[in-house]
Design brief:
Layout: H1 10-19, H2 26-36, E1 41-44, H3 51-66, E2 77-80, H4 84-97, E3 105-108, H5 115-123, E4 127-130, H6 132-140, E5 151-155, H7 157-160, H8 163-175, E6 181-186, H9 191-200, E7 219-225, H10 231-241, E8 247-250, H11 254-266, E9 272-274, H12 280-292, E10 297-300, E11 315-318, H13 325-332, E12 342-348, H14 353-363, E13 368-372, H15 376-381, H16 391-394, E14 395-397
Helix pairs in contact: 2-3, 3-4, 13-14
Bound molecules: adenosine-5'-diphosphate and magnesium ion (MG).
Amino acid sequence: MRFSQYHFVDEIKNNLEKLGFKKPTDIQYKCIPNILRGEDLLAVAQTGTGKTAAFAIPILHILHSKINTKREDGIKCIVMVPTRELAIQIHEVFQILGKNTRVQAFSVFGGVEQGPQIAKLEKGIDILITTPGRLFDLRHQGFIKLNRVEMLVLDEADHMLDLGFIKDIRDLIQYLPRKRQTLFFSATIDDEIKDLAYSLVKNPVRIQVSPKDPVSKNVDHSVVFVAMDDKRFFLERLVKENPESKILVFVRTKVRCERVQAAMDRVGVSSVFMHGGKDQQDRMDVLNTFKLGNVKMLIATDVSARGIDIPDVDFVVNYDLPEHPENYVHRVGRTGRGRKKGLAYAFCDDAERDLLKAIEDYISKPVKILELHTDGYKEITNFSITKNLTLKDIIAELEPQPNKRYGVKKAKKK
Ligand code: ADP
Ligand code: MG
């Protein structure tokens, strides 16, 4: 089915056409009718499959049809997201898809002055995209009224219902009308969080579009065993062999961001880095620089793992393995978005083998191992003064060996 066959208002159809979106993705095809019918939804679909438009299109359609020339007071839809960057990105999607409609979307988040946000809120908006903290503050100060909210969306829902945020979400829900539509979206969700999601909605949740393998099918991901101190040589080699490629490197901490940047600097590779400790303007500048491709390497912590849609990331490198296995899925999901293909490498030190095992349990399959040929390892670590073998020459793809080194266990989580 094509978007042109849907009964959306013309403005939305035109916007979809301008964007070049002809057909809905699977998740969009499956969710849109249910959302239009007013049902609650728990939607799980792989990274990069268009979950944002899956909720944005029907929400815009519903609200546009309801809002007459006279705007009624109050916000009608709240979209909760974990990071400021994601709030801005989703706001943009609403703006693009909602251009020329009667619907006004706006985003608020911490780390910047409240004043301009309050001024805009006072003019009246329909959809608010927000991080929990800033919403909480603004509501507390009386700048946000929630009594007319008809729809609540939790994007990255498992994360939003996790320890760090659940208290804010519960507090928020108290202020929302009981009669409302609640939508949960994520690429990963486990049973515990699913139960929690069910407990927050009055109507039973209607749909779950859950892939067996949570890793995006567009991402070819593998692991190479590298000693911690040698990881930088492997990264250097990857960059130098792919000078035109955009590489997103994930590390564990902000100190590691700085260290890896320094190591790259020493070998003449420019990079930018981003972590939760940077101020908001800095974070936006860094992200834009990388988005535009002015600098080809972004080194980041998990603050950038979820939801961020950067065009044309060629490689994701798990320079440090993630501590939470679901973040592996989100990190590698920064590449291979939409119809694009992507490559992801994990650099695994011996001390990180338990983390790798946890990831494999989580995704219910072994991660493909890249084995180094004899002397290959040395060849890479001596790279700066070395011969002409390519990374490909040096590493061979081994088929995963189920039940051998990494036994396939039934996953507890998905
Ligand atoms: P997810 O939230 O599932 O990770 P996003 O909503 O960020 O994915 O979308 C991923 C990419 O796919 C975006 O760049 C978006 O513009 C593109 N996209 C979404 N829907 C469609 C569609 N129907 N046709 C073509 N591209 C799409
Ligand atoms: Mg998303």
